[in-house]
Specification:
Strand content of chain B: 15-25%
Largest interface: A-B, 38 and 40 residues
Oligomer: heterodimer
Largest sheet of chain B: 5 strands, antiparallel
Number of helices of chain A: 6
Order of helices and strands of chain B: EHEHEEEHHHHHHEEHEEEEEEHHH
CATH topology of the largest domain in chain B: Uridine Diphospho-n-acetylenolpyruvylglucosamine Reductase, domain 3
Number of strands of chain B: 13
Radius of gyration of chain A: 16 Å
Helix content of chain A: 25-40%
Distance between the termini of chain A: 44 Å
CATH architecture of the largest domain in chain A: Roll
Low-confidence stretches of chain B: none
Shape of chain A: elongated
Shape of chain B: globular
Number of domains of chain A: 2
Order of helices and strands of chain A: EEHEEEHHHHH
CATH class of the largest domain in chain A: Alpha Beta
Bound molecules: flavin-adenine dinucleotide, FE2/S2 (inorganic) cluster
Number of helices of chain B: 12
Structural class of chain A: alpha+beta
């Protein structure tokens, strides 16, 4: 793309199925790019250094922390956020299960929880409850006490592994 | 916090990356998965002038088997290592340790080489590499060199890497037939760096290779402990002299929330747990 170090670069990528092209400062992380440049504010910033999971998004189908990736590193990649995955219906089962069990209170962590859980349920891997807790333990929630969230993920995982 | 200001460059080939690191010297730093580097920028613990993004160098992203040696490229991601049938077959110690490395989102970006270069004494992959007797291949615009894992780690977050040098790959001998292995760690929360951990490989014809995590300034072989346990009968229980041998091998630090004494105690607990369970794991 370029061979001289630059403070500002062009990023071209797909976000929720739409091609976008923007000039961004090198130091801007992907979360700020999504929130400020593209006004997709469903991706939240909690700790801004990788420990809370509120900023989780999918990059080429893999869940990552958007506060630990540069916006310019999204160049040529496919980004999916809570907005796109809600609209497409990909998260419908998880969202229904979260609502049924009251697994969101203030909702700050919810987008990250859903995207992490999506990676798990999409893999279809069967897991015990303690394994689900470990898998989800990188995402912090200050409200729910986690049980309702794990209940919801467990229910969706069960229903997926039952349907062949 | 937001990262400090820096310039960014994405070389298209390994040669270009090495030239770039050479050209900008101390002001440039490689960016791999970013899962440690970007976090330290966010905490304003470092402020490099130039980030050289090496993630596009696909030649460093492969795992291959050549006879009894496994070659693991520096840019192999944690998730790739965890899922690799080659790694599971030849060096299953890695496969056992990887679920303890952070969480899925971090494992989807963090790289093998980044973890070695960062050299956290509580990190899983450096400890496993030392336990397995691996070698690192380093490259700069001046050429390549090899260094044994135990010599590569020189201190707390310190390695033998010279300015302008990249880790290219690690060469790891396949675990010997008949060998057994086990990995365990004690952390406050799954996925956190452990307070203490143990990577162990035992082969019929040689001494146990034990590397403790979080109990010294770097990963190294616990030779006094391995020597003391030579010929011991299993299951181990209340081994006299274990505490003294561990105290000789290890030098844990007092950190907020965990004293050096506690870490030594945990290392003892892990020794019994890991080595006794190891006897139950079918040999390779
Ligand atoms: C919340 C959280 C929890 C974590 N928990 C754990 C854990 O439990 N265990 C664990 O081991 N790790 C953990 N990590 C760290 C993670 O494993 C990192 O991925 C790893 O330490 C660094 O790899 P990276 O590819 O992200 O490197 P980067 O962050 O890109 O780089 C780290 C350093 O290595 C240098 N570097 C990178 N690649 C090379 C190379 N090829 N040659 C020379 N220098 C290089 C960089 O310049 C930088 O100084 C955690 C991280 C986070 C954010
Ligand atoms: S905001 Fe990214 S992990 Fe907390
Ligand atoms: S619902 Fe408030 S942080 Fe999780």
């Amino acid at each position: 793309m370029t061979n001289e170090p630059k403070h500002s670069l062009t990023v071209e990528c797909t976000v929720n199925g739409e091609r976008v092209r923007r000039e961004v400062p090198a130091r801007r992380h992907l979360a700020d790019f999504l929130r400020e440049d593209l006004e997709l504010t469903g991706t939240h910033l909690g700790c801004e250094h990788g420990v809370c999971g509120a900023c989780s998004v999918l990059v080429d189908g893999a869940v990552v922390r958007s506060c630990l990736m540069l916006a310019v590193q999204a160049h040529g990649r496919r980004i999916e956020t809570i907005e796109g995955l809600s609209d497409s219906g990909a998260l419908k089962d998880l969202q229904t299960a979260f609502i049924e069990r009251n697994a969101a209170q203030c909702g700050f962590c919810t987008a990250g929880m859903l995207l992490t859980a999506h990676q798990l349920t999409a893999s279809g891997e069967a897991m015990t409850r303690p394994e689900i807790r470990e898998y989800m333990s990188g995402n912090l929630c200050r409200c729910t006490g986690y049980h309702a969230i794990i209940d919801a993920v467990e229910a969706v995982l069960r229903s997926k592994s039952r349907t062949p | 916090m937001k990262y400090p200001d820096f310039a960014y460059v994405r070389p298209a080939s390994l040669g270009e990356a090495l030239d770039c690191l050479q050209k900008y010297g101390d002001s440039a730093i490689p960016l791999a998965g970013g899962q440690s580097l970007l976090a330290t920028l966010a905490m304003r613990l470092s402020s490099p002038e130039i980030l050289v993004d090496i993630t596009g160098l696909t030649e460093l992203s492969e795992i291959a088997r050549e006879g009894d040696t496994i070659r693991i490229g520096a840019l192999v991601k944690h998730v790739q290592l965890l899922q690799s049938p080659i790694v599971r077959g030849a060096t299953p110690l890695f496969t056992a340790a990887l679920p303890h490395v952070a969480h899925v989102a971090i494992r989807n970006r963090g790289t093998f080489g980044g973890s070695l270069a960062f050299a956290d004494p509580a990190a899983e992959l450096p400890a496993c590499l030392v336990a397995l007797g691996g070698t690192l291949v380093l490259g700069s615009s001046a050429g390549r060199r090899e260094i044994g894992a135990e010599d590569f780690f020189t201190g707390l977050l310190e390695t033998d890497l010279r300015p302008g040098e990249l880790i290219l790959e690690a060469r790891v001998p396949a675990q010997a037939p008949g060998s057994r292995w086990n990995f365990s760690e004690l952390s406050r929360r799954h996925g956190d760096f452990p307070l203490a951990g143990l990577a162990a490989v035992m082969s019929p014809m040689s001494e146990a290779r034990l590397v403790y995590l979080g109990c010294a300034d770097r990963p190294k072989l616990a030779t006094a402990t391995a020597g003391m346990l030579r010929g011991a009968s299993y299951p181990l229980k209340d081994v006299p002299g274990l505490a003294a041998a561990l105290a000789e091998d290890l030098d844990p630090a007092d950190t907020p929330g965990c004293s050096a004494e506690t870490r030594l105690q945990l290392a003892g607990t892990l020794t019994y747990r890991v080595l006794n369970d190891l006897q139950e794991i079918p040999a390779r």
